[in-house]
Amino acid sequence: MVFTNVDSEHDFEFNKWYVEEHLPERLSAPGFLDGALYQATKGSPRYLAIYELESVAAMETAEYLHMSQNPTNWTKRIGPSGVGRGVVRNICTQISPAKGDPDTMGRGMAPALQVGRMVVPEEIEEKYNDYYDNQRTPRNLTVPGCLAVRRYHVIDGSPKYTTVYEFEHEKVPESMAWNAGRGEDKMHDYIGGSYGHAAGSPGVYRCISPPRAF
User: Fold this and answer.
1) N or C: which end of the chain has fewer CB within 10 A?
2) Does domain 2-209 correspond to CATH entry 3.30.70.100?
3) How far apart are CA 4 and CA 89, in angstroms?
């Protein structure tokens, strides 16, 4: 996951670079399964590029390392290292669901995401994980428009935990059903402590490439 702010004056070329060069280049590397570019409708940073990998070993292949260490001139000029501000780059491993669901694998990138980057004190991690997987996630999956919930350990970057909700559209977290679930949530009581969010989190992101049907 690569989050970045880009000034609006660079939007057109940044999107063009991503669609025409960067995404096809990355998806040509072994172990890169899918990818998409999202723009925030709530929270920050403004842009999120997210890639699904077979494993973290995809970041270590000769092909990926060559393209990463030899960026094109266009990448140098308009990529996150050129025009990006507040860049956050995280490599993650999926912890929930523990195994891929064959009924949902390969369905493509979701039309919208909500991404929570969680700062969780070590002493409450066990209860945090238990409540999330056995209480919060099952409840949120009953909300119309919530397609999937995946949680990750961040192994390169910070903070340690990231939760990604996959939505049919970006208005799902504004729905009555979603907010009713939030009102019923007892996470803080159960874990006996508090966790926080990284700056700008949670962010809601609308997929802009590949293009959506609506």
Assistant:
1) C
2) yes
3) 9
Per-residue pLDDT of the chain (214 residues; tens, 9 = 90+): 999 999 999 999 999 999 999 999 999 999 999 999 999 999 999 999 999 999 999 999 999 999 999 999 999 999 999 999 999 999 999 999 987 665 555 568 999 999 999 999 999 999 999 999 999 999 999 999 999 999 999 999 999 999 999 999 999 999 999 999 999 999 999 998 889 999 999 999 999 998 876 6
Q: Which amino acid is at 182?
A: R
What amino acid occupies position 99? K
Question: What pairing do the DSSP bridges indicate for beta strands 47-53 and 146-156?
Answer: unpaired
* Pick from 76, 67, 2: nearest CA to 28: 67
Give dist(CA 151, CA 139) in Å, integer.
15
Which neighbouring-strand residues pair with 207?
A: 38
How much is the pTM? 0.94
The DSSP annotation for 50-115 comes to EEEESSGGGGGSHHHHHHHHS--HHHHHHSHHHHEEEEEE-EEEEEESSS--TTTTT----SEEEE
The DSSP result for 126-195, as a single string, is: HHHHHHIIIIIHHHHTTSTTEEEEEEEEEEESSSSEEEEEEESSTTGGGSHHHHHHHHH--HHHHHTS--
The three-state DSSP-derived secondary structure of 142-154 is CCCCEEEEEEEEE
